[in-house]
Amino acid sequence: MRFLIKLSLAVSALAVVIPIDEASKSVADSIIGPHIAPGTEIYFLPNANYPIKFTQRHSSFANPGYAVAVQPLTVLDLATIVKFANKHNFTYMATGGHSSSVGFLRVRDAIDIDLSKFNTIGLDIDRNLVTVGAANTLADFADTLYKAGKEIPTGNSPCVSAIGATIGAGVGPMQGLHGLMIDSLRSVEMVTARGDVVTASKTENPDLFWAVRGAGANFGIITQATYAVYNATNGGKHVNADFEFGPGSQGALFDLLRSWDSDEVYPKEMAISVTLGYNRKARLPTISVSAYYFGPHESARPYLQQLVALDPTRWQNETLGWNEMTQAAGFGQTFAKACVGGRYTSHLTAGLRRTDPATWASVFASFVEWTAARPWFRGSIILQRYNAGVTRRVPEAERGAYPWRDIGTLVLMSNTYDGPAYDAEVNTFFQPLRESIYKTSGFDSPASTSTTATVMRARRRGMARACLGCKC
Ligand SMILES: Cc1cc2nc3c(=O)[nH]c(=O)nc-3n(C[C@H](O)[C@H](O)[C@H](O)COP(=O)(O)OP(=O)(O)OC[C@H]3O[C@@H](n4cnc5c(N)ncnc54)[C@H](O)[C@@H]3O)c2cc1C
Ligand SMILES: *[C@@H]1O[C@H](CO)[C@@H](O)[C@H](O)[C@H]1NC(C)=O
Ligand SMILES: *[C@@H]1O[C@H](CO)[C@@H](O)[C@H](O)[C@H]1NC(C)=O
Ligand SMILES: *[C@@H]1O[C@H](CO)[C@@H](O)[C@H](O)[C@H]1NC(C)=O
Q1: Fold topology of 236-449
Q2: Which residues form the signal peptide (predicted)?
Q3: pLDDT at 448
């Protein structure tokens, strides 16, 4: 409560009127008051405008608990807030995009630093660079660059924050052509955990730049980031194809995935996402495949034909601008659905170097049996196969902290269900299921894209200096 009073005094000129404790006023005013631009929104929670004006978390799983929410207008405001929080030992968390990462139960009575006002995107065509703010999404990237005849690797869902995805590596469909999002990152402007405003790039604060590329959320708050962009492949026109299969096709599908394990065989222009689910009404397993091919239909056809040969119950293909791809995927349904917030969803991930059809037959059968008996569960298992040739060939000196460049297929267990009462039951089933996937993954030790592992790696490399003062 000490916290609420102090901060309220600091911003007494602002939107929310709170009872003032004169004793704390001068302290807080002297720290924050002179630096905060008029117009910076500060809410003490609960506040009726908070859900409308501030970015809300995508999933309600293991949510952080906030006492105050601040929406800074400038990088200097942000630095002031961070210094204030450090000085008074308050936990804070940055909110950029749709806030989908989960597992923040230890963040309690914290300051929600909402970055919504950092929302400009600028393209420098002559130098092939794009600069985005912390609130810009992957859809902003696609729209701006497509119109200019350029492209950049992004993720699967248009609603994800561009910087939020990047600081965990940024995995996505164009990875086969251009590598991970971190491989295109050139520099960031950030407020460090100590409250200093710095630029990090290959030449300025290179250690910090290394850490940001994989473990970014732990070293400071990034306000804007600059990336290299590329001329659009095939004029920016690509093939999107969607398939649905009956349960009888699964064996052949897993065999096809195995035949595509090699990056010599599976084209760098291709990206597929396989979703294994369960249709409660029909009481049947469901399998859908969403495929992108970055190039003309003639080049895509030989690969799409291999999926057509598996006897889909329904399929279609179309040629689209690359800015329309993620919205079109899954017969126009998948990612529109993925972007709906407010559900209780947790994620478990795993990385594969190879596909073991027997493992997948068994994983899918257990998943279906378990799900069929639990009407409160609405999850699916997603396998994303991207060519990892470019990602793997990035020289050590250019790599950054992210260690999982060998992953050819990313597995995502997306578990949506009716709330915390079922957490234990979900974990008891999915943790061992993931262990069984690891066993035949082709990796000696479990590979997942969890940032915790990446942060541990950054710490081992002696990143304590950059991390000083932060709560990681
Ligand atoms: C539907 C869906 C689809 C997805 N698809 C992909 C995909 O295709 N490829 C992919 O790589 N990932 C994907 N993700 C994962 C996503 O990239 C991560 O969850 C990412 O952390 C989201 O960033 P965010 O800012 O929206 O989330 P948040 O949960 O708000 O942020 C994650 C962490 O980063 C911190 N953070 C946020 N912004 C900043 C900032 N500007 N500076 C410093 N720290 C910051 C937060 O404090 C938090 O600790 C997907 C997630 C969902 C829900
Ligand atoms: C800071 O806060 C944490 C918990 O939020 C507490 O454990 C720690 O002792 C505090 N440190 C100081 C110096 O007050
Ligand atoms: C990108 O396109 C521009 C304009 O068409 C052209 O001048 C340039 O050479 C191209 N760059 C590459 C790397 O192909
Ligand atoms: C696939 O695309 C080709 C080329 O546009 C088109 O001729 C064909 O009808 C499409 N097939 C389906 C099932 O969508």
Answers
A1: Vanillyl-alcohol Oxidase; Chain A, domain 3 (3.40.462)
A2: 1-15
A3: 63
